[in-house]
Amino acid sequence: MNDRITQLLNQDPLILQALREDISSEDVTTNAILPAACPGQADLICKQDGVIAGLPVFERTFHLLDPNVRITFYCQDGDTVSKGQKLALLEGDMRVLLTGERTALNYLQRMSGIATYTHKTAALLKGTTVKLLDTRKTTPNMRIFEKYAVRVGGGHNHRYNLSDGILIKDNHIGAAGGVTEAITMARNYAPFVRKIEVEVENLDMVQEALDAGADIIMLDNMTVEQMKEAVALIAGRAETECSGNMTKENIAAIADAGVNYVSSGALTHSAPILDLSLKNMHAI
After folding, report:
1. How confident is residue 5, by pLDDT bands cut at 50, 70 and 90?
2. Average pLDDT taken over every residue of the chain
3. Percent helix, strand, coil in the chain (nearest 5)?
4. What is the per-residue DSSP string for 83-115?
5. pLDDT band (50, 70, 90) for residue 145
6. Helix ranges, the chain (H)
7. Given this model, what pLDDT does residue 77 score?
8. Is 187 known to be catalytic?
9. Which fold would CATH assign to domain 2-122+272-283?
């Protein structure tokens, strides 16, 4: 996880962009209330149960405004937190604390919401060998943060972006003229070390993908019974992944289908935020 935290802390341009979105010229309210520097404190409070994720980003947001802000954390990423729990003490110029509050909380709430949703979903697969994967259905300019949060919550990352792996989907198949043609083209273009994954919708496509030498076969929008038939047909000759409207409400039923992976866009596109707040701000 330390390497991933380092990656997060190398995302200053993204965090600065978020700050500029919220501060186009000045924080007029804070500047009106506090015309001069004033040291103070505030508490980071959890307002509902969940899994915390994004504390390094939360801290970095304030440090980009003022490196003298001090934050003492009473938890770390991946910890289970509960309603009413004090998560951190912030100390510094209250103008900075007020100005950075919303952007820092937006990151922390969003990432913690994803970690919490992922944790609940991964728990439904506990005791199985199935790995829970995220997708590229992420908020623009938030992918590195959201995929990190999935890992914190106990999930695994699928490819990071289009350069990261070959995944032949339905429109690629249509453009190529068929499953075999698409796999052959990918095999001829890509280095031999690259795995080729192909999305299929029925058993005929499964067989064609097998015959063409796919490394991973994604079973898209199939019923559990159809998945079991597909897994039996594949018989270990390729890895298997299922996808298509996978949420924590239905994912448990997939566990006994025999697939290696379950990918769920809901981990990042449907997770509600975890409610967190800065409270008790006062001068010192």
Report:
1. confident
2. 95
3. 45, 20, 35
4. TT-EEEEEEEEHHHHHHHHHHHHHHHHHHHHHH
5. very high
6. 2-9, 12-22, 28-33, 55-65, 94-123, 143-152, 170-176, 179-189, 203-211, 224-234, 266-269
7. 97
8. no
9. Aldehyde Oxidoreductase; domain 3 (3.90.1170)
Longest CA span, the chain = 72
For the question of residue 95 being annotated catalytic, the response is no
Q: Annotated catalytic, 169?
A: yes
| Pair 83, 48: CB distance under 8 Å | yes
List the CATH code of the domain at 123-269: 3.20.20.70
Distance CA(259)–CA(245), nearest Å, equals 16
Q: Among candidates 96, 156, 170, which has minimal Cα distance to 121?
A: 156
Give 159-180 pLDDT, tens digit per residue: 999 999 999 999 999 999 999 9
Tell me which residue of 257, 254, 232, 255 sits closest to 245, measured CA to CA: 254
Residues of the chain with CATH 3.20.20.70: 123-269
pTM of the model: 0.95
- pLDDT bucket at 245, cuts 50 / 70 / 90: confident
Of 169, 201, 228, 229, the active-site residue reads 169
Locus of tokens 């623009």: 140
Query: Catalytic pick from 86, 137, 143, 228?
Result: 137
The answer to whether residues 34 and 59 touch, using CB atoms and an 8 Å cutoff, is no
Query: Does residue 248 carry a catalytic annotation?
Result: no
Structure tokens of 128? 């199985």
User: Does the annotation count 86 as an active-site position?
Assistant: no
Distances (CA, A) of 13 to 8, 84, 141, 253, 258: 11, 33, 10, 42, 43
pLDDT for residue 162: 95
Q: Cα(92)–Cα(101) distance, rounded to whole angstroms?
A: 12
